[in-house]
Fold this protein.
Amino acid sequence: MKKFFRLGLIFFVVFLIILWSAKVYFFSPGAPVVVTIAPGQSGSAVANVLKEKGVIRSKLLFKLLFKLTSNPSDLKAGRFDLHKNMSDLGVINCIKSGHCTHFERVTFLEGWRSEEMAEELASRGITNATEFLTLVRTKKLEGKLFPSTYLFPQNMPAKKVVQEMLDQYKKNILPLFKQYPTDLTEEQVLTIASIVEREAILHDERPKIAAVYLNRFRIGKKLEADPTVQYALGYNLKENRYWKKGLTYADLKTDSPYNTYRYNGLPPGPICNPSYESVKGVLNPEPDFEALYFVADKGFRHVFSKTFNEHRRHIKRIRGK
């Protein structure tokens, strides 16, 4: 009797193991997989892709179920976040509904100009760079493309990409104008903030750098800001980048309305897309800060001066003869 009981127990345990293994093998989703479905792709072609990626186990069963539950027009083109070993019905519902659409995580850094953003978007297959830039330039949106991390699907219309960035600008930046009233226009604030963004590294210095440029602007003194010259020069082929390093005296003579070494007042508009901290620095600058000059120290900080002679002494101390 005990022998039969033991054998029965062994068979029961083996049965449970087989049942659990079958569940894991056939029904438990595995590792995540990104699957691309091209426009106009047939159900048979989609089944081939899904089989190659390990999402489905049988192309025949998938195609049969697809014919019974769907139409060819139900297949949506795009990239989808699926899993290996998904149920056929789960895959079909996912693709038909678009709920599994794959989103690219894109980060735009503070201080990027719109061209840099356009290149990043195009490289990730999100939207057309030319369409994006045309929209930005036509509507004069430089400075209002809020730098942050976004989740975008591929092949997104440029208009929708821009609108999402503008929505973040309205949400994060516009409230600052109510919090810190100013006699400057929104465009002027963003223009000065964009220069501050390219000059400052540390957040606590932004109100001081902003105060310097505001002081110069209000007394009619040329801003003489290196980033405006870098913006005017555009893409530097030798360095393979925007924002040329090591400006020369010839660069400072560049004839452009953005060159604040040649022309008085503010440049025609923002030179990049500034951060929250830079805009706040312009709207709420360092109080009673009378400096008109600053120079980068050997670290990340700057040394500020009220007079040109004091400024020259700091330069000589930092840079030597």
User: Anything to note?
Assistant: The first helix runs from residue 2 to 26.
